[in-house]
Write a structure and sequence with these properties.
Layout: H1 7-10, H2 20-32, H3 34-45, E1 48-50, E2 56-57, E3 69-70, E4 75-76, H4 78-89, E5 94-99, E6 106-110, H5 111-127, E7 135-139, H6 144-156, E8 159-162, H7 169-179, E9 183-187, E10 190-192, E11 195-197, H8 199-207, E12 215-219, E13 233-235, H9 236-241, E14 252-253, E15 257-263, E16 271-276, H10 278-291, E17 299-302, H11 309-321, E18 325-329, H12 340-348, E19 352-355, H13 357-365, E20 381-385, H14 391-401, E21 407-411, E22 445-448, E23 454-455, E24 459-465, E25 475-476, H15 480-487, E26 495-503, E27 509-514, E28 518-521, E29 524-527, H16 528-535, E30 541-551, E31 555-564, H17 572-582, E32 591-594, H18 608-615, H19 632-640
Parallel strand pairs: 5-18, 7-8, 7-9, 9-12, 12-13, 17-18, 17-19, 19-20, 20-21, 31-32
Antiparallel strand pairs: 1-4, 2-3, 4-14, 5-6, 10-11, 15-16, 16-25, 22-23, 22-24, 24-26, 26-27, 28-29, 30-31
Residues 263, 308-310, 385-388, 410-415, 436, 497-499, 511, 514, 520, 525 line the site of 5'-O-[(S)-ethoxy(hydroxy)phosphoryl]adenosine (WTA).
Amino acid sequence: MKYEVPARVREGAATPIHDLDRYREHYANAVNDPDGFWLSETKSRIAWKTSPTQGLVGGFDEVKEGPLSWFGDGTLNITESCLDRHAKSTPEKIAILWEGDEPGDVRTYTYDELLAAVSRAANALSELGVKKGERVIIYMGMVPEAAIAMLACARVGAIHSVVFGGFSAEALRDRVRDCGAELIITQDVGRRGGRDIPLKAVTDEACVGASSVKKVLVYRRTGDEIPWVDGRDVWWHEALEQSSDIHEAVEVDAEHPLFILYTSGSTGRPKGVVHTSGGYITYASYTHATVFDLRPDDVYACMADVGWITGHSYIVYGPLANGATTLMFESTPLYPDAGRYWDMVERHKITIFYTAPTAIRALAAKGDEHVTGKDLSSLRVLGTVGEPINPEAWVWYHEVVGGGRCNIVDTWWQTETGGIALSPIAPATPTKPGSATLPMPGIQPSLRTPEGAIIRGPGQGLLCIDHPWPGQARTVWGDHDRFVSTYFSHVPGAYFTGDGCRRDADGYHWITGRVDDVLNVSGHRMGTAEFEAALITVEAVAEAAIVGYPHPIKGQGVYAYIVSQPGESINEASLQAACREQIGAHARIDSFQVVTGLPKTRSGKVMRRILRKIAEGRGDELGDVSTLADPSVVDAIKDGFKV
Ligand code: WTA
């Protein structure tokens, strides 16, 4: 089933890609002359201090030798693209429209005000001794000050690393240590869904054993009493009050790191994915303007959290570079009830709305009565991101929310890609429920066999990208070898995404999910290895293996197989507590099973394929298990299976 683009979405497009012919033309230009294509985009979109003449230097074949570069001879400060020029041309336009946890609790920053606030914060950071190239951890909820903190870091040339406010003290400490941050910016208490999140208290705990931290800057959100360390802790409002609202942006090279964002992989600890300045901002700006067909009067609302890449690229950097009005939302789709999103659409006349399939499924399950009766006529483009969307949820979004009058952009991308890589372009691309459709200009996807051979035409395989693009991650912080081995060793000369994908006869892409040991639970990316490491901290646990299984709302659920220590019994509360303490509140086990042993090869490797099948309820399709060291454990696991 194909959905044509509704006329009201097609007409009056701001992007030059307003139909499929134009798309093919732009796509071909980007393939034939990547340097020319991106140099022209960056010059028209970004305020450079020294305009670049170089496009790409290096490539996937040479990534072993060091990071590739885009626009390498240019210099800039990305905040001038996001703030100063809009403060001149549209000073009164609302840049950030914030809605707090309680419905109708609204604050706004115009571009003029945002520039002043970021300048104050930048001066405050300099006053605290933050210098170009130093790392700053931002551990906050969804308050405008989180965006201001990010921009202030960028303004002084410091490298920020935002840590999602749900992460535990352990996880926060790991990240602080890995990047050697000297400053943490946090807030007293976070608010979400009517609940308090003790951000400052968790920060204090994380600082024990994180000796690099010299200062903690604390934004006052709720005014609750909080612990205070004299000499280390500084109030945000006091530091900003004493600072000038004029700040000369620090000039950096195009390849100066803008931020580090930690993300989960197949193995080991989360890795610090590094994004740099000129290429990243160009790609965030280009994709945001193009995919959503951003128009001057749009009210753009992305429901993600700034702790994830979507919040970086499509709440803060892309929209602000494009001079948009971007909404920041502190709460959850279910607070105070399942009509919250749609009340906000009506209240703020939102035109572009971007959320995750999990939220759509959860809201659809609550019934249409929370949607119907709300005035959603302002909506034009609906977006999804983070996980595959099932056709039922897609159709509900299209019909019940969009009234059939909007186009849906199912955007596939990753922390590593920096911005949207496969997606419909709102006014141009007919859609199919569940398909991320076509590659963005500049993205050259390929489907591969496990041996790396290219699959042409319709087919299914491993998704790779064959040519560099400006928004891609450059390295892993402090570990370029890990960057190379994770992404460039599977298929020499191509970037390996970790996702499986099917391509149909129209060339449309259908993501089938991760092919590695990464879980995607409610759109949150988590590593099985992280869960397993957390679980074996429980004394009664001898061994643990984690797999994902299909979950009707969360997309994937977390299934744990646990082998207990001899004579010990396992209680669920201790397992959940370990995950909460080691990872965070968002890391929960959905189902677990105590087993006598795990299926292992003779060399001791856990056969997850078998565990995955059993958790999926397909235990009768295991095939040959005779290569296992002890095939009898499989029957025992199957007998005890209980989802
Ligand atoms: C998955 C989030 C299907 C995918 C931006 C990818 C998707 C991982 C989609 C990256 C989509 C993201 N359809 N799957 N539209 N978007 N994914 O790094 O498995 O948090 O590899 O970035 O999410 O998650 P990450």
